[in-house]
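Posting here for the record, re: aspartic acid.
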Amino acid sequence: MLRTHTCGELRPENINEEVRLSGWVQKIRDKGALIWIDLRDRYGITQLLFKEEDTKPELLNKVRSLGREYVISATGTVIERESKNPNIPTGDIEIKVTGLDILNPSKVPPFTIEDNTDGGEELRMKFRYLDLRRKPLRTNLELRHRMAIEVRNYLDQQQFFEIETPYLIKSTPEGARDFVVPSRMNEGEFYALPQSPQTFKQLLMVAGYDRYYQIVRCFRDEDLRADRQPEFTQIDCEMAFVTQEDVLKTFEGLTTHLFKNIKGVKVDVFPQMSFDEAMKKYGSDKPDLRFGMEFVELNNVAQGKGFNVFNSAELVVGICVPGCAEYSRKQLDALTDFVRKPQIGAKGLVYVKCNPDGTFKSSVDKFYSQDDLNGWAEKAGANAGDLLLVLSGDANTSRKQLAELRLEMGNTLGLCDSNVFKPLWVVDFPLLEWNEESARFHAMHHPFTSPKKEDMSLLKSDPAKVRANAYDLVINGVEVGGGSIRIHNKELQKQMFKVLGFTDEEARAQFGFLMNAFEYGAPPHGGIALGFDRLVALFGGHDSIRDFIAFPKNNAGRDVMIDSPSPISEEQLKELNLSVDIEDAKEL
Ligand code: ASP
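Prediction output follows.
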C-alpha cells in the first residue's frame, strides 16, 4: 500500500511511529529553515515538516519543486507539534519527513481547494472533480452515503425488499415531460425514462412483494430551479394490505430513525393537517411550522367601513408579526415593495401597528377608528408591540401572496433555524385540479390515487370537490415526499381515466398492462416516495440540492464538465433512424 495511515488518522498516541501518508498538497509554507506542507486526503489534513538542516539536499530540492494539488507520498516519523492546531483532529502531531515520492504533478487548479473557494459556480461545475475535493462537498456526500445506509437499515428491519425496476420504460404521465430514448431495434419507437417507478411498484404489489423500496433515479424534463434536477433520486416505496395511517406511521418511523441516527435529534410527533386547513392557515400546502404567524381572516371586522379595496374583496387576510410595531416607514415600504414584486403581484399592503401604549397606527387610518383597529387586533390575537400585515382580494391569490410575506417575515426575524425540524403530514389533497390550458381535470397526484370513499359519489357530479387518499410529508416548508393509497379495482381505475379525459382506447394503450394486472388479484396497496436529494440537503442545512449530488446539472440542464447534452454523429442518427435525409427534408 502506498500509505500506512490516512491524513485524518494520526494522534499523539502515534508519536515516534514510522508512517507513510499519501495525498494532495493543500498548502506549502517555506520559511527557509523550515518547510511545512499540509497534506490532504478524503479523511483530513496532516502537517508534514522538513527541517532544512537535517534534510538531504535532493529531498529539499524535491520539496521545493512541489505545487498545490501535486499527489505525493511521504515517509517519516510522527512527532509532537510545537504549535498545536486545535481546529483539526490531527493538530497535535506532524510528520518529520525522511522520504518523498512525487506520484503525479498537478497544474495550478483554477480555484482554491479551500472551504471558502474563490471559484464561481460555473467554473466549479466545469472542474467538479476539483470542487469535490473541498471539505464542504465531501461532508455533503458523506452525509448522503450515511443517510442511504440508514434508510436501507430501517426499511430492511421493516421487511421491505429492495427491488430494481427498469429505466427503459414506456411513457407514464405524471405531470411532467418524459425524457425519451430512441430504440435502434424498433424503428420509429421510443423508450421513456421513468418519472418514477410508479406502475412497476404497483405491479410488484400484485406480484405479492408486499413491501418494496428502491433508492432510485427518476427523470423529469422540466424547467429547472435551485431544488430541481432533470435526474434526481427518490426513496420509492410501496406497501400492500395497508391503510393510509399504516403508511404514514411507517414513514414517520423512517424519518424519526434518520433524525435520531444522523442528526442525533428527537423529533416530536408528526401533526396531520388537511390540505384545506393548510391553505387557510398558511396559504400553502407545505407550511413551514418552525414559526407561527397563522393567517387571520378579517372580513367581518374590516369590511363595511368605507374602504372600498376591502369592501370589494373576497378575502381580507392578515398575519400578526410579533414585536414589530416599531417598524420604520422605510421598513414598511420595503415590505410593500416585496408584495408588489411581479412574482408575488399584490397591489398593496395594509399595516396596523399595535403601539406599546395601546394606541394603533395604520396605513388606513382614514377609514378606521381606533376602536375598529382594536377589533382587528383582538381578532388577530395581537398584543401591544405587534404589527399586523394585511392583504386582500381574491381568496386563493391573497392567500398565496400572504404565504410569501409570512415566509419573508420568518426569515427576516431569524425564525427559520436550520437546526430545528418541524415535520408535518398534509393529508386529504384534492383528487383533481382543473387545468385551464387543456380545459380538463388533471390528477393532482397521479391517476392511480384513490378517491376518499366518502367522496366517491361526487366523482360524477362535482369532481373538483373529491378528496384523495393522498398525503405529503413536509419538513420546514419543504415538500420532502408524497404518496397515496392507490386504486386497486379495475372499474374504478377505468372511471378515473374517464374523468381525466382518456378515451377507453387511450387508457388501454397506455395502461392496459396495469388494468390487466388488476384482474388477477390486486391487493389494496399504497405508498410514498421521498425526494432523497432534498432530504439530504435539508439534513445538511441547505436549500439547494446541487451540492448534495456528486455530478449535478446546471440551470440549463447541462453537465458543463462532460459537455452534455451534445450532438451525435450522422452515423448514430442513421442507426437510430433519426437521420433526416437532406433531399427528403427539402421536399418537406
Ligand atoms: N410516484 C409518486 C411520485 O413520484 C410517489 C408515490 O405516489 O408513491 O411522486
